[in-house]
C-alpha cells in the first residue's frame, strides 16, 4: 500500500477466559477502502470490530488504528471514528435534528457548527422533511439512516458499521446501500460486518471471511469467487424419492441439499445437457453465476451456528 493503513493488525488475539474469540489474525485497511468482515455467528467478527472501535482491548498481538495504539490513545482514536452499531441507540426523547446536534456537541462543536453539520447530514440521508419529528414514528430504514448520519457528525476518518441493514426491507436496504456508496465516493473509509452476501458484493472493495476466530480467506468479492468457486452453478431439483447424486459424478462438484442439488461447473448449459444425456430428468433447472454465498458456505460449512 502506498499510504499508511488506517487499520493494521498483526497476530491479534482476543480471549474471554478460556475462550479464544479472535485467534491471531493479520489485516490491513487502506484509506478510502470499503472493507468487510464475513463469517458465521461466533466467528470473531464482533470481537474484532470492538477492538478496532477501542471499546475492547486486545489480549495480545499488535493493533494500530489511525497510526495510534488503542491502549494509549483510545480517546483520541474514538474522536476520529464514526460508529453505527448493530442496534439503533437513538434518543427517543429528541427530534431527528436534535439527535444530530446534541451528539455533535460531544465533539466540541459550537452550536452554530453543530446545527450546520446536522443540516448537511439531513440532506445527505434524505431526512430533512422529518427533521422535527421524534424518533419513535420513523420507519426502520429512516432510523438506520439517522444512525449513520449521527456516525458522520464528526467527519470521521473511519466509519465502523455493524450489520448496517439487518432487519430492513429491500427498498430500505437499497437506499442505504446508495448512501454508503456515496460515502465511498467521497473517500470515506468504511469497515463493516454483514450477513448479506449481496451486500458484501455491492459495498466491499475487499473482505475477509472469518471462521473460528481466524481469517480463512481474504480478497475482493470477485477474486474470492474466482478462487473458491467455478464460474457457474446449476441448481437441480428432482422429484421426491429420486437420488441423482451418483449419476452426476464427473460433471462437476456436487453439493446435495435437502431440497435441491447444486452442481458447480465451468459451463452451466453444457452441464445441463450432460445431465439430460445421462437420462436424469430434473423437475426444475436454474443456471446462475457463482456468488459470494457459494464461497461463504464452502469455507464455513452449512452447519447452523447459534
From TrEMBL:
Subcellular localization(s) per the UniProt record: Cell membrane
Gene Ontology biological process terms from the UniProt entry: response to antibiotic
MF-aspect GO terms: ATP binding; ATP hydrolysis activity
Zinc-finger as UniProt keyword: no
InterPro entries the UniProt entry points to: AAA+_ATPase, ABC_transporter-like_ATP-bd, ABC_transporter-like_CS, ABC_transporter_ATP-binding, P-loop_NTPase
Domain of life: Bacteria
Cellular component GO terms held in the UniProt record: plasma membrane
All residue ranges annotated as the ABC transporter domain in the record: 7-237
Topological category with respect to the lipid bilayer: Peripheral membrane protein
Record keywords, A-Z: Antibiotic resistance, ATP-binding, Cell membrane, Membrane, Nucleotide-binding, Translocase, Transport
Primary location: membrane
Keyword Transcription found: no
Pfam families linked to this entry: ABC_tran
Family designation: Belongs to the ABC transporter superfamily.
Protein name per its UniProtKB record: Lipooligosaccharide transport system ATP-binding protein
Organism: Streptosporangium saharense
Amino acid at each position: 500500500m502506498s499510504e499508511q493503513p488506517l487499520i493494521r493488525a498483526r497476530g491479534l488475539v482476543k480471549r474471554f477466559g478460556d475462550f479464544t474469540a479472535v485467534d491471531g489474525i493479520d489485516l490491513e485497511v487502506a484509506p478510502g477502502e470499503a472493507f468487510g468482515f464475513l463469517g458465521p455467528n461466533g466467528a470473531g467478527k464482533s470481537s474484532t470490530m470492538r477492538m478496532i472501535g477501542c471499546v475492547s482491548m486486545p489480549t495480545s498481538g499488535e493493533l494500530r488504528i489511525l497510526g495510534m495504539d488503542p491502549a494509549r490513545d483510545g480517546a483520541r482514536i474514538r474522536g476520529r471514528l464514526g460508529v453505527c452499531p448493530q442496534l439503533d441507540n437513538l434518543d427517543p426523547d429528541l427530534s431527528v435534528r436534535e439527535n444530530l446536534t446534541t451528539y455533535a456537541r460531544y465533539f466540541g462543536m459550537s452550536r452554530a457548527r453543530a446545527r450546520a453539520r446536522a443540516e448537511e447530514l439531513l440532506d445527505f440521508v434524505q431526512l430533512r422533511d422529518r427533521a422535527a419529528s421524534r424518533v419513535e414514528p420513523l420507519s426502520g430504514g429512516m432510523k438506520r439512516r439517522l444512525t449513520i448520519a449521527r456516525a458522520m457528525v464528526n467527519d470521521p476518518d473511519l466509519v465502523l458499521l455493524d450489520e448496517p441493514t439487518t432487519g430492513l426491507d429491500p427498498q430500505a436496504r437499497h437506499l442505504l446501500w446508495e448512501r454508503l456508496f456515496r460515502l465511498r465516493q467521497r473517500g470515506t473509509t468504511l469497515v463493516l460486518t454483514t450477513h448479506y452476501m449481496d451486500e458484501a458484493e455491492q459495498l466491499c472493495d475487499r473482505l475477509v471471511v472469518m471462521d473460528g476466530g481466524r481469517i480463512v480467506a481474504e480478497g475482493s468479492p470477485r477474486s474470492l469467487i474466482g478462487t473458491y468457486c467455478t464460474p457457474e452453478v446449476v441448481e437441480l431439483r428432482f422429484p421426491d424419492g429420486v437420488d441423482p447424486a451418483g449419476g452426476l459424478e464427473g460433471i462437476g462438484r456436487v453439493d446435495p441439499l435437502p431440497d435441491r442439488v447444486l452442481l458447480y461447473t465451468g459451463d452451466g448449459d453444457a452441464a445441463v445437457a450432460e445431465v439430460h444425456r445421462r437420462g436424469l430428468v430434473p423437475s426444475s433447472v436454474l443456471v446462475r453465476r457463482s456468488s459470494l454465498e457459494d464461497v461463504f458456505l464452502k469455507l464455513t460449512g452449512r452447519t447452523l451456528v447459534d
